[in-house]
Amino acid sequence: MPPDDTPEDLPADEGALSLRWSGRVSLTPRILFVNIFALALMAGGFFYLDSYRARIVDGRVAQAEREVRLIAEALSLLPPDDRTDEMVNFARKSGLRLRIYDRRGRLAADSRALGVRNFQLLDPDKDGWQQDAARALDAGIDTVVGNERDPLYRERAPGRGLRWPDVVTVRTTGGTAATVWRAPDRTPVVTAAAPLPEDRVLMATVNARDITQTVRSERFRLSLVLGVAVLLSVLLSLFLARTIVRPMRMLARAAIRVRLGRAREVVVPRLPSRRDEIGMLARALSDMTSTLRSRIDATEAFAADVTHELKNPLASLRSAVDGLGAVQDPDLRAQLLAIVQDDVHRLDRLITDISDASRLDAQLARAKFEAVDLGALIAALVGYRCDRGIGRGITLTFDHDEPLVVHGEGARLERVFANLIDNAVSFSPPGGTVRIAGTNDGDLVEIEVIDEGPGVPPEQREAVFRRFHSVRPGDEAFGRHSGLGLAIARTIVEGHGGMIAAESRRDHREGARFVVQLPVAGA
């Protein structure tokens, strides 16, 4: 399992996960925004089509210039009387409206007047709403990309040829010229002019509606694709938000109810079918709530047990104190004072053990573990007990392998084995032997404390580790133990990642065997 985060790690993690403005927005709109933002980039294809249209128009302008120059050169090779008929043929084949202007700008010949009606502007007022919408979209895109609007195409009177800028440019420079105009229906109109002999000018005109139709068709297809993509993105975003936001809201409501003190009424959903992070969070919250309930139950039970355990010596102490005021016999008063003194010592032991038991979890959480040699620790503890004298002829032995090094807090572990040794000595018969053995299998250090007493019945082997559970030898004075020794030992051992249990002796002889297992340091 990965190690728990230390308090020093938390600020860095919090900073890494912190959000500024986006943390104030619900997950659903944030998911929608991220997905639609990607589609908005796809919408840039509309503007790419505008540049595509501009390149096509530039190509059409160059084509018109080449065509009008070639036609002008071909007409220049013909006699003046044959030019009109040949101009009509060129107009039919090229799709251009061809006009010839003389040096004064007067119209000398017009393919349309000669029967070739291949140039005709559409009236936008007679189009349907689809064309109106297309033109509005064109105008909007032009506005967004900042395109300059081409000048509106308007016909000139037959004698006003010099009002065409292409005609003026040709007469001035002697080369070709071309201009792009805007028809009333927003389609491009291209005019091009080239010089003819006798100081005349040939001008060609074409309405390039095919360019607009091609661009609008591509925009329509792109709009369909984009619309379907937006719809699917919104639906998938809502589905994703539902699968994330809904369970998180359920978990948040459950956590709020737990915070309000309704932990016993709340069923935190575990979401067993989900194997993602949401499922992990749900199960972690459910387990945390169960642990919290257990802690609350244990705290309530501990408070009730403390009250019960304190009432007995207090009641005895109150009776003795009340009797001191009424008894005049010195011997009886001495007995009552002895009872008072014994009850005071009993209360002192009880309060000390209760204080240690109540603070033990928090102290272990803050403790700094280090390598502890259990062999040396238990050997010193056994030597001290033997030097002090055990009493009743009881023998205390310690056999162990080397090394017995674990990771923990030495003072707490010493208390574990001191409690186990005290417990074994108190239950041992006169002249009995309490044997302590230590082994190391490479992963675990196992310590056994074996006595020759009556043993622990199988149905009591778990109950002896409960707080205030005290079954003492019959010849022991009442109140000498608080019933917290084994409970404290289990708390310390489990706080070190180990295990403690009461078992029967392996040799099937009478007596109890307490086993403590702790991880080897560095295992």
UniProtKB/TrEMBL annotation:
SUPFAM superfamilies: ATPase domain of HSP90 chaperone/DNA topoisomerase II/histidine kinase, HAMP domain-like, Homodimeric domain of signal transducing histidine kinase
CDD domains given in the database record: HAMP, HisKA
Protein's UniProt keywords contain tRNA-binding: no
Segments crossing the lipid bilayer: 31-49, 222-241
InterPro entries: HAMP_dom, HATPase_C_sf, HATPase_dom, His_kinase_dom, HisK_dim/P_dom, HisK_dim/P_sf, Sensor_TM1, Sig_transdc_His_kin-like_C
Domain spans labelled Histidine kinase: 305-522
GO molecular function: phosphorelay sensor kinase activity
Gene Ontology cellular-component annotations: membrane
EC class (word): transferase
A Pfam family this chain is assigned to: Stimulus_sens_1
Keywords linked to the UniProt accession: Kinase, Membrane, Phosphoprotein, Transferase, Transmembrane, Transmembrane helix, Two-component regulatory system
Coiled coil regions in record: none
Identification of the protein by name: histidine kinase
HAMP domain mapped to chain residues: 242-297
Locations listed in the record: Membrane
Catalytic activity, EC: 2.7.13.3
Reaction(s) catalysed (UniProt annotation): ATP + protein L-histidine = ADP + protein N-phospho-L-histidine
